[in-house]
Amino acid sequence: MSERIEVRKTYKLYVGGKFPRSESGRTYSVADGRGHFVANAAKASRKDARDAVVAARAAFAGWSGATAYNRGQVLYRVAEVMEGRAAQFAEEVAAGEGLSAAKARAAVDAAVDRWVWYAGWTDKLAAVLGGTNPVAGPYFDFSVPEPTGVVAVLAPQRSSLLGLVSALAPVLATGCTAVVVSSYQRPLPAITLSEVLATSDVPGGVANLLTGDAAEIGPWLAEHADVDGIDLTGAGTAAMELERSAAGTLKRVLRAPADEPDWTGDPGLSRMTPFLETKTVWHPMGV
Amino acid sequence: MTHVLDPTAPGRPVAPGAPDAFADVTRSDAAFRAFLHGLPGVDQVGAEARAAQLGTRSIKTTAKAWAIDTAISMVDLTTLEGADTPGRVRSLAAKARRPDPADGSCPQVAAVCVYGDLAGVARDALAGTGIHTAAVATAFPSGRASREVKLADVRDAVANGADEIDMVIDRGAFLSGRYLDVFDEVVAVKEACGDAHLKVILETGELRTYDAVRRASWLAMLAGGDFIKTSTGKVSPAATLPVCLVMLEAVRDFRAATGTQVGVKPAGGIRTTKDAIKHLVMINEVAGPDWLDPVWFRFGASSLLDDLLLQRQKLRTGHYSGPDHVSVV
Question: Which GO terms describe its molecular function (chain B) (predicted)?
Answer without folding.
Answer: deoxyribose-phosphate aldolase activity
